[in-house]
Design brief:
alpha+beta; 10-stranded mixed sheet
């Protein structure tokens, strides 16, 4: 089956395509903490260098370094000692390290995740006991060997693309969707993109970014601003011969595929970067000049990657009846001052002639969202499989999740399988993310929320990265 036919068969699974990033770093380290009968702990002389530093090194220092995305470094004893209460508070609540995929009674994936950042219970107890036990430094000789400096961004970048000039929003109140034309100057007959990363020039206003291919160069004729080489666009790049190559959302990390996986890009193809800008309410609108890092290879990979974003059903039959639907007719609408509202949709996979592997999966909502589950109902076995559960959705940390197994052991999509996506929302002032967003806009009460692309609208999406053999 050709790529064109496979893509057509899978198109029913998605309303738009999306490439998400699936990478990170971290593991867990058990500390020397023993439980007491009353539930307390015995510290046994816990020290920074022997007990705490290994945990920070393996689970925190990917971001908490000088120049990293975290607001402070956690490299030295003095760093950790000063922030110890914050470290304990953030880790005990499992806010940090940021990792949304969790096992729940309703949905527990059977495969482990790559680069799982979650701390073990022993790690959490060690950090807490060290803080409460005096934050001892210990002997520097007990420290683990220092990690080599980790490059921030994508490794092995071959193409760095930047907006032709800084762009400033024209509105201080309304969202904008702007497309920027970029030329990667691909000269090989076919190159394969197998890594991407976005660096938001102004994270305060960049809501998300999508990178589309433009095979025929149609975008050139759409440019209305020669300085920034850009034009207004919404819902996509507004061109016919296109596909989604890569994407970025807040909290995204580099998309770093192995050499066996890639997305083909033909010679002469232009790229169109669509940025969703959301106005920053505190102060004047500053300019953005986002950068895209890409890694291309001319070597044909074993597997092509197809990226889909199922969800956002706009009506029957895929949108199921909800608890607040008017007159019992399925409608994607979240009433004001309602918590526990759900939107659920199912999509049946059409005929597929070759194995389609689920490489990774993610979730996407806006500020009203609080949880999401993604399940696969297998037609052949009449069994349900949990692909992802995100019980505590956080808009600020929208990473994707890849399974830590070899490709033949990945979940497989077959003819007749049904994808089930369920999102839960809290449209009340008890939802802290929503309350802050409303207050930023000088609003003191929730409003009815509809399906849409603007930040104060809502979505329910499950980005999938799918593989098939070349």
């Amino acid at each position: 089956m050709t790529k064109r036919l496979i893509t057509a068969a899978l198109a029913a699974f998605s309303m738009v395509a999306l490439v998400r990033c699936y990478s990170g770093s971290g593991s867990s380290t058990d500390g020397p903490v023993t439980a007491e009968p009353d539930g307390g702990t015995t510290t046994s002389g816990l020290t920074f260098h022997k007990d705490v530093e290994p945990i920070l090194q393996k689970n925190c220092q990917g971001c908490h370094v000088a120049g990293g995305i975290a607001p402070m470094a956690l490299l030295t004893y003095e760093d950790a000692k000063g922030y110890a209460p914050v470290i304990v508070s953030q880790t005990q609540s499992r806010t940090m390290p940021p990792w949304g995929a969790q096992e729940t009674a309703d949905c527990s994936p059977t495969r482990k995740w790559k680069d799982d950042l979650r701390l073990s219970d022993a790690d959490l107890a060690t950090l807490k006991a060290w803080n409460e036990g005096g934050r001892l430094e210990g002997d520097p000789k007990d420290a683990p060997a220092p990690l080599p400096p980790k490059a921030q961004g994508l490794a092995g970048v071959t193409h760095t693309l930047k907006l032709a000039a800084p762009y400033t929003m024209t509105s201080a109140t309304n969202d904008e969707f702007r497309c920027f034309v970029l030329d990667p100057k691909i000269t090989s007959a076919t190159s394969y993109m197998n890594g991407s990363f976005f660096i938001a020039g102004n994270p305060q206003i960049v809501h998300h970014a999508l990178l589309f291919t433009d095979v025929a160069g149609e975008s050139r004729s759409k440019v209305t601003d020669a300085t920034t080489q850009s034009y207004d666009c919404q819902g996509g790049a507004g061109i016919t011969k296109t596909g989604l190559l890569a994407a970025w959302t807040p909290g995204g990390v580099p998309s770093d595929f192995p050499a066996t996986i890639g997305a083909p890009v033909t010679a002469g193809t232009l790229l169109v970067l669509q940025i969703h800008y959301h106005p920053h309410v505190d102060g004047p609108q500053t300019a953005d000049q986002t950068t895209v890092q890409l890694r291309f290879t001319d070597t044909k990979p074993q597997y092509n990657v197809i990226s889909l974003l199922p969800g956002n059903a706009r009506g029957a039959p895929s949108l199921l009846p909800g608890p607040d639907d008017p007159g019992g007719t399925p409608v994607f609408a979240i009433p004001a001052n309602v918590s526990g509202h759900t939107e659920e949709m199912t999509t049946k996979l059409p005929n597929v002639a070759v194995p389609i592997y689920v490489y990774g999966v993610g979730a996407h909502m806006h500020y009203v969202g609080v949880s999401e589950t993604v399940k696969l109902k297998h037609a052949a076995s009449s069994t349900d499989e949990c692909l992802l559960s995100v019980p505590h959705w956080d808009f600020s940390w929208q990473r994707g999740y890849a399974y830590d197994v070899d490709i033949p052991s990945l979940p497989i999509l077959s003819t007749g399988d049904v994808l089930d996506i369920k999102c839960t929302y809290d449209n009340t002032m008890n939802n802290p993310k929503l309350a802050q967003s409303l207050m930023d806009r000088h609003m003191n009460a929730p409003i009815d929320v509809k399906l849409g692309e603007s930040t104060l609208d809502e979505m329910c999406l499950a980005p999938l990265q799918l593989l098939y053999k070349n």
